[in-house]
Amino acid sequence: MNAIILAAGLGSRLRPLTNDRPKCLVPVLGTPMVEQQIHFLLEVGITDITLVTGYRADKLDYLRERYGVQLVHNDQYDVYNNIYSLYLVRELLGDTYVLEGDVYMPSNCLDINLRHSTYFAAYRENYQREWGLLLDGNQVREIRPQDGTGYILSGISYWTKADAQQIRRCIESLIQEGDFKDLFWDDAVLQLQEQLHIECRPAEIFEIDTEAELRALEALLQSK
Question: Assuming Cys at both sites, which of 71, 130, 139, 189 could form a disulfide with 152, CB separation 3.0 to 4.6 Å?
């Protein structure tokens, strides 16, 4: 089992905190988000970790020495969405966790004993413009960009070798077709969802887009 962390984006909505560092290095209660992810991966025994860098990639070099993380640079980070980052490391995809580097886990929700591909999903009320999960028990029946209440994609997922092979082929096709500038890598899953067996694992995960959201999350965590 391995892990891929996608951390190439500009993080422009979190400025000025991202003026001099990538978004994944913004700390929550003193710990950079990506270091929290790496700690949790190592905690469950996943040591094969690849980080796709982009904006201010130089700031992430220390992770190689400190944690043994492999770094792959996406020099098109300011042109394409994260589908291109995953395309660059697509050969690594299989029995793999894929994590977006700008999400924060207060506690470790990762599991190395998963039998099926799994989206770790947060429950949100009255969400807007999110990728919602329609469930049958714990199985994902449909992924639908929408407004609503329920579980949403939260930036952490696991993919079996069989499902990852299909996703990899779909991403390759989308890149070869050329019209992928505004696509996210989950768009490949969206196209394949009827062919994949995906389960939902409820988890406490927070995506932080603005400094106000960061401060609100820190206040919430300190109040517990």
Answer: 130
